[in-house]
Amino acid sequence: MYQSFIGLEVHIHLLTKTKVFCRCRSAFGDEPNTNVCPVCMGYPGVLPTLNLEAMRMGCIVARALNCTIPERTWFERKQYFYPDMTKNYQISQFASPLGQRGCLELEGSGADGKPIKKKVRIKECHLEEDAGKMIHTGTVSLLDYNRAGVSLLEIVTEPDMETGEEAEFFIQQLRRMVRYLGVCDGNMEEGSLRADANVSINLPGQGLGKKVEIKNLNSSRFVRLGLNYEIRRQAEILDGGRTVVQETRLWNENRDETAPMRQKENAQDYRYFPEPDLPVFCPDPAFLASVDKALVELPPARLKRLMAEYALTEEQAGLICDEKTSADYFEAAVRAAVAALPPEKALSQKDAADRIAKWILSDIKHLLHKEGLAGLDSFTLSPSRLASLVVMQAQGRLTGKLAKQTLERAVVEDKDPELIVREHHWEQITDPVLIAETARKVLAQEGATAGELQGLGNEDEKRRKTLFAYLVGKVLAATGGRADPKTAGEEIEKLLGTTAQP
Ligand code: ADP
Ligand code: MG
Ligand code: ZN
Q: Which residue, 136, 324, 435, 485, shows the most beta carbons closer than 10 Å to its own?
């Protein structure tokens, strides 16, 4: 058996409105080569200016990853030639990255269902500019420079992970975290978050092996598959008495394997030197305070708190915490539901939480899907409207079925659920006298069924249940679904002089 070492380099696009060193718009999907200017096109003689918002967002991620922000951080030129980079150098950070020596704790379960608990050290986070995009079509390559100069934060881990599952989990955690922080949309298909995965294996106790880098993985699943494939491939090489070639490989998603891309010599010589056109950045107390202010409660902490405070199950809390917008929505709705009634009649927080979690995770989820909405922040039903629906239901004023109808109407008509229930007279009927009256009419119409029921022996339990359910259904139908099913059952039992369960 071998020991494996995995280190990730994750690139995230920061959600700045403009690029990192010029004022061009930073956006995905615009008409090619429309968001360009002399600075990001690398014209001679132009001067870059640092986008302070990019520096701030980078520092927010750095702090969320428990990194130290140095007193002085600056930029270097990383020289290499490539057609997607007009200047022939990339402005990046080398000697003084904005975030240094942090960690991210992984806790949960991996794609294989096995538990994961590990502290991954973060080597650094550095700010740089992205390159343009090359589009290869047949014998021609096209270039789109809209992406050239877009703010990119690179997060580099130490080689502390050991399995594809751990690396996948790391990416998922990081993705959720940057979305919570509002600094990256985490869209891996659009390339807003991409990862290079480094992996080596060795005999236990022998330290790191010769590493292979798998480049440009645009899905966390590919990270897992690529790494696990690579660990197996390297093990076979070592088993055969050969040595692993240090190289860069690509994941082929059609063949489920990695293939060589280029051999990488020990250290490519990028001839880094400090960028002479940008001053050293010294974060002042006001800047650092603005960074700290943006550090919202992060998903793992929030998940634990939601479980403790609202008695949610781990599964419920996990799903609700997946997006900050849904966790915010949940907590706002619970607060509103608890506050809706005077203290002596108020719903307990746990009762409200359980009901609201169930709505969010089933009916509301389906509605969002149906309306093609990405999240609860764009949902027409406000948390307080959901709260009012839940309160009516808890008070026994709405049957489950009509509650669902009320929800749908409230969304479509953008109206308060209370109003809808009143307009349609959907309040549940719980008055036994009223229900008995309806039941009497139903039994008169269903004489045959009633007779059969009364004649059944105790051994016909199944038939008895079926007939009872049928009659209750008739009473509900006769009241437009408004009668309380439990009371309806009780009244039928009284009228027939027999019980549903012998
Ligand atoms: P390079 O100079 O090739 O870019 P770095 O030292 O910057 O290498 O490391 C890049 C990534 O590779 C980091 O995430 C690091 O943890 C990982 N890494 C470095 N050496 C190894 C190794 N021998 N095995 C596995 N991962 C490694
Ligand atoms: Mg590197
Ligand atoms: Zn520009």
A: 435
